[in-house]
Design goal:
With 154 residues, this protein is an all-alpha fold. The protein has helices at residues 25-32, 35-43, 61-75, 80-88, 93-125, 135-144. The longest helix has 33 residues, at 93-125.
Length: 154
């Protein structure tokens, strides 16, 4: 009697989910990261893949797109609740309005980070032993404040 150890299907799974093709959670995770991340997206209501009669998840091209959007939104600093709200927003003008709001928030964050970068760059390139005592750094710091008069010592 011979025992079969590998009980996996010998039929290869599709390499991509394009058109009507479907993939497993392992294939989807192979594109984006650990399967636990994909499962977490399901747990919080961001993904709802159909399941086979055996209970296995099956993902298509729409799921690939959704995971890519979720990951980009997370990289941009959005929390999962915000992402869920955006996904639930009806397509069209309401979604574009939500996207504009998100874009404007990112633009403001970029501006804030650019100021921080410029200050750090000034500090790194400063020849003074103590940047807090460097007049050039003090001017740059004052210029970076919303109201530079707060820094005047008259």
């Amino acid at each position: 009697m011979q025992v079969q150890v590998d009980l996996k299907s010998s039929r290869p799974a599709p390499a991509s989910a394009v058109g009507g093709e479907q993939m497993s959670i392992i294939e989807l995770a192979g594109r984006f990261g650990p399967a636990t991340h994909v499962r977490h997206c399901e747990d919080v209501g961001l993904l709802d893949p159909p399941r086979t009669p055996a209970g296995r998840r099956r993902y298509d091209h729409a799921h690939v797109t959704r995971v890519a959007v979720i990951l980009r939104a997370k990289q941009a600093g959005r929390c999962l609740d915000d992402i869920r709200d955006l996904i639930a927003t009806p397509a069209g003008s309401a979604r574009r309005s939500a996207l504009r709001t998100h874009r404007d928030a990112i633009r403001a964050r970029i501006a804030t980070l650019q100021v921080a970068h410029d200050l750090l760059n000034c500090a790194v390139e400063c020849g003074a032993d103590d940047i807090a005592a460097c007049p050039h750094f003090q001017r740059e710091l004052a210029a970076a404040q919303p109201d530079p008069r707060r820094w005047d010592h008259h």
